[in-house]
Amino acid sequence: MPEHAQRTYRSPVSIAVPASAWLHDWHFDALGVAAVLLAAAYLWAARGGPVPFVRRVAFTVVGCAAAVAIACGPITEYAPHLFWVRALQITLLLYVVPLGLASGMPVTVFGGLLSPARRSAALRALRSPLARVLGHPAVGSGLLLVTPWVLLFSGWNLAAMRNPALDLLTRCLLVGAGFVYFYTRVQADPVPRRYPQGLSLLITLVESLADGVLGIVVWLGPLLYTAHYAALGFSEDSMRLSQTVGAGMLWLLADLFGLPFLVILMFALRREDAARQVRVDAAEDARDAARADDEQAGGGAPSNGLWWESDPELASRYHR
Fold first, then answer.
1. Angle of helix 164-186 relative to helix 155-162, nearest 10 degrees?
2. For residues 187 and 180, is the Cβ–Cβ distance under 8 A?
3. What does the DSSP 8-state code read for residue 222?
């Protein structure tokens, strides 16, 4: 560890990360290297493809570049020593990086490299019963909500902070859990089953309340990992301050990072409504044309039937 970082960790009052750390405390990290390779492969696969430029930026910058900054920068360096930095790391890896990756349509991009036969096989596997279960919104939401609770309130987090290999695995699992959630909710790529975006919007609002519960429990609950932080020289007051700031990261910052996702869902909901209206208008036009043909053929006799049978939405609901 850098000398100035050691002084910060052992200080009983200071929980701040020195500003100079963003210039000096950079290191090699396997997750960062994987993110660089993934970005390069994505850009190569997406060349000349149908994926919009803004989605490529989301994948490479919000997803991969952010992952490199988190993994190789001071956040991962200081996370085992300061609770609030660990909470920030968890929030970024669970919300920001996966949202960028899922928004970049990686399944479409990398699927374009497959032959037609393998692409058809992949789509069949994607629509299999197991994939439909894993792609259900409840599964992704469960992973996103349960993972921080299990990580923080079990021996998992403490063991990860002490074991670099387990910490690397933990960070990969956080990104994976977040990706499953956003992939099945953004629905920019082919998914096992498409769900109404209105449902996604409702689920997101409920999840924001669950984030608040986690933040309140961490904020008002007992000190976590006291022996670990005491060994680093922190007093109970500094531990409490660090944990309080970390609670804000898990609660308020998670909701703040969720705002772009809400915007994405609202735009998707708008497109969904517009597409539904186009289908309804087309069905009404076809019905009116058929009615006009029937009236001409029958000498202008009015058509019989219940009023709701002519409405495409209600007719399909009642199988008419």
1. 120
2. no
3. P
